[in-house]
Every structure is written in structure tokens, then in C-alpha cells.
Amino acid sequence: MRILLTGDWHLGANTWRQKTVDRTPEIQSCLTEILEFLEESKLQGRPIELVLMSGDLVHYWVPMEADKQKWLLDYLYDISSYAPFVAVLGNHDWRGLTSIDKFARARNVHVEDRFRKLSIEAGSRSVGIVVLPYFDARRMLREAGSEGLVGARERGKQVVIDSLKRARDELSGNDYVVLLAHGAVEGFAYTQVGGKDVPIPVEVLDLFDFAFLGHIHDHVEVRSRQTQRLLGCYPGGVAKLDFGEEKSQQGFCMVELNRGQQPIVEFRSFRHQKALKTFWAENVSGQLLEELNSFTGYAKVVLRGSTLSEAQRLYQIESVVAVDLRAEERKEGEHEQVTFMSVEEAYVHYLDLEGVEAPLRKALIDKFLTYMDKARGTLS
Predict the structure, then answer these.
(1) Cis omega (within 30 of 0) on the bond before 359?
(2) Which domains does the chain have, with CATH numbers?
(3) Beta-carbon contacts of residue 330 (< 8 Å; ≥ 6 apart)
């Protein structure tokens, strides 16, 4: 059985505060490549039988503009003309997307925002799908009282284990039973940060024929710690939304399931995805300007010895969306004094000194920026 996995579209995303860019055209161009792949597979006599979307169809919790909403609905109908389409909502998604589900099921489009069990006829096979939306530990806090966020995460994890086991058993009459989830598998990226995410225990993935996952913006294959069996994968997303994703792999996956055999995953990156690149320089030189003007993706420039006004002028170059003036370091006696332009810059500098790498670095920075925004809102 051939199943296509896509996820983390973030349609409607506007990225970077200093020079905002609407990423919708890029995202739409990438998603069109999925339709091309579906048509190509059909013509080759190896059609995709089911399309699964692992969360974050859109980027904001509020409705998109009408033209973007129409594009999305038309796109989902285009996909469902090839195969049934099932999506789970992620932590970014506008809950109003579930209204699509009320009238689109007749056209094989399913959009789920709750823990559910589905049986779908796909080709000549029946597929049981356990749908697990993003699980915020703060929901457990509201019920539990004073156990704290760590305790809530642990209790939430046990709820996930028990619920998935029951659901798997109830769907055992299907040819295949798979998991469709938006969340971080325990031991990966975001679960190392702590915070509000309830991690998906890796051991429960072994209950399913395959786990189709979203939330981590990098193509990752999840394997059993004991047997190394391939348990599931993340497709990684569509557009690289932040420079912490500069080196990540993003695309879609074709997953082939055959009873009694190892799943086969074929990963395809997007041709229309724009690259991100960080340029490091001591100051604004002719060579730097030439490189920035010829770069066709989105550029971040880190300057070690330049002025604020010189740095700001770089935003006039089309590719430049972020400019950082790196902390100036100098020795005074036996003490090293470091000057920063902001608290955020100091925190990033600290992570660099500790050797923290993406995607954990990005997750930590995002969490820190969230805390800073809340603090400024309280003080204002």
C-alpha cells in the first residue's frame, strides 16, 4: 500500500519581524509539486492510495484571508480526486478548519481536531487511522491542580499510552492500522526543551504498522530503540520559516506498507523551496554585497565589527531579511567584557558558547522570545 505523508504547511505564514515576508506563494508552489507527484504516480500505474497530513495546515490561530481559504479548500479537493485525504490539526491551526470536515467528507476530505478512530477505504484495502492532535500539558494542569507542569506532562504521557493502546485494539479488523499525530516523539528535538508539549512515547509507535508524524521541521525517521525497526517519520515541512531550520530537510514522503515487511520510505524535497543562508562577515565589504545580491533565497547577515546604520542599510538588498550585530568581545585585564544590543542577543550568544545546535537551539530561542514578549506585555 502506498501512502503519501505531508505536514507542517504553515499556509499564510509571514516571517521575520524586521522585514516581513509573506511565504504563501512559495508554500503554494511547493504544495503544487505534491499534485504533480500524485499525477505522475497515477500515470506510472502505481497510484497513491491515501494522503495523510500531519498538522499545521495554516500558520495562525485566526482565519486567513478569503482568497487563501479558497485556495486551501480547492487544493484539498484536488488532492482528494486522487486519494482520500485525512488531516490532523496542529498547535498552529485555526480551529475553524474543522468546518471543512462537515461538508467535505463526501469528497473524501477529513479534517480532525480531536482524538479519533477512523476506518478509511483506500484502494482495495481498509486502513484504520488513530488521529492524535497536538496535546498541550496545560490541559492536564487545569484538571489536576497543583502537580506542576512536569507532573502534568508525565500524566499526559500516560493518557496518550493508554488511549493509543485501546484505539489500536479497536481498529485491529482493518488491513493496516496507522497513527496520524502532531507532536514530538520522546527523545527528539522539542521534548528536550521541556515546556508544555506532551511527548509521544516512542514505545507506543511499535503498536502500529506506521506512524505518520508532524511538528518537527526536519525530515526524521523514528526507529525502535531495541530492534531498529522503522516505526514512523516526519516529512519536515514545506517552507523553512526560521534560520534555525537552515540545514533541515523538508519535503514529503511516500511510504509503502507491505504486510510482514519493513516499511519503505521515499523522501522528496521541494524544488520551489527557498534556501536560507547565514553570511558571517567582519564588516560590509564589496564581496559581501556581491554575494548577497546574487543569492536567490533568504539571507541573514551576522556582522562582527560594523555600525548599526551600516547594518540597517543591508535590508535594502532583496535577499536580506535579518541582520545581527554580533557581540563585541574585548579583554580587560583577566576579565572578558561582552557588550550586547539586547537580552535576546545575549541569550543567543550563551547558546552558541554552550554549543547548542539546531533544532534544539531554535526551540530554545523560540521559547525565550515567547517569555520576553510576555514580560514586555506585562510591563507595558
Answers:
(1) yes
(2) 2-269 (3.60.21.10), 276-379 (3.30.160.210)
(3) 336, 337
What sign for the dihedral angle of Cα 131, 137, 138, 143? Answer: positive
Between CA 162 and CA 183 the distance in angstroms is 17
Q: What contacts 209, CB < 8 A, 6 or more positions away?
A: 176, 177, 178, 257, 263
Task: Look at the block and give the residue holding cell 515567547.
Answer: 370
User: Per DSSP, what are the bridge partners of residue 131?
Assistant: 116, 180
> For residue 28, what are the CA distances in angstroms to 31, 141, 146, 239, 272?
5, 38, 45, 10, 9
Distances in Å between the alpha carbon of 157 and those of 135, 165, 170?
Answer: 9, 12, 20
For residue 94, CA distances in Å to 57, 60, 61, 184 come to: 9, 6, 4, 20
308 vs 353, higher pLDDT: 308
pTM here is: 0.82
Confidence of residue 232 (pLDDT cuts 50, 70, 90): very high
How large is the average pLDDT for residues 297-317?
89
Are 255 and 2 in contact by the 8 Å Cβ rule? The answer is yes
CB 298 within 8 A of CB 274: yes
Which residues on neighbouring strands pair with residue 280, listed in sequence order?
302
